[in-house]
Design brief:
The protein has about 170 residues and is α+β, with helices and mostly antiparallel strands. Helix content is about 25%, strand content about 30%. The chain has a single domain, classed as Nucleoside Triphosphate Pyrophosphohydrolase. Strand 7 and strand 8 form a beta hairpin. The chain is globular, with a radius of gyration of 15 Å.
């Protein structure tokens, strides 16, 4: 069964609903979240997306990420995605960092980006994630510079802004 997403206008206001496959096929504006999990050493947990994913299979991505369900808010979706993908229920509320406007790099998603601190270990959802690991910001910067094709465009955009503002 196909998920149903809220479709939004250029100001991120809900204007209707559509099934996931049609939202992506038609390039309709919709919503997503990315969460970066940071440990005490300042490393970031990245996930390698499962090869069964319909978008960006096998690429390295934010610690957790996903679409908002119909009627769901960004904060609620961020908490749900952390729980679903990593089995993580943070002790403190997630820290909202910034919002990206929908664009080609985000596959027409408005994206809110969050941060949380945790040490793991995590319970990775195998349907979503092949594996994951901790990386220093320097390692991520070098990796993106040398092999940008290892990452979805949306993650590169999220990382660039995160690194400029928060590192």
């Amino acid at each position: 069964m196909d998920e149903i997403f809220d479709i939004v206008d250029a100001h991120d206001r809900v204007i209707g609903q559509q099934i996931r496959s049609e939202v992506h096929r038609l390039g309709l504006l919709h919503r997503a979240v990315h969460i970066l999990v940071v440990n005490r050493q300042g490393e970031i947990f990245l996930q390698k997306r499962s090869m069964s994913k319909d978008n960006s299979p096998g690429l390295w991505d934010s610690s957790a990420a996903g679409h908002l369900d119909t009627g769901e808010g960004y904060d609620e979706a961020a908490g749900r995605e952390l729980q679903e993908e990593l089995g993580l229920s943070p002790a403190k509320p997630l820290e909202f960092l910034f919002k990206l406007d929908a664009c080609l790099a985000t596959t027409e998603e408005f994206v809110q980006v969050y941060r949380t601190e945790d040490e793991g270990p995590f319970t990775l959802q195998p349907e979503e994630i092949e594996c994951g690991d901790w990386f220093s910001p320097d390692k991520i910067n070098q990796w993106i510079a040398e092999k940008p094709g290892d990452f979805p465009e949306a993650f590169i955009l999220v990382w660039k802004i995160f690194a400029e503002r928060y590192l």
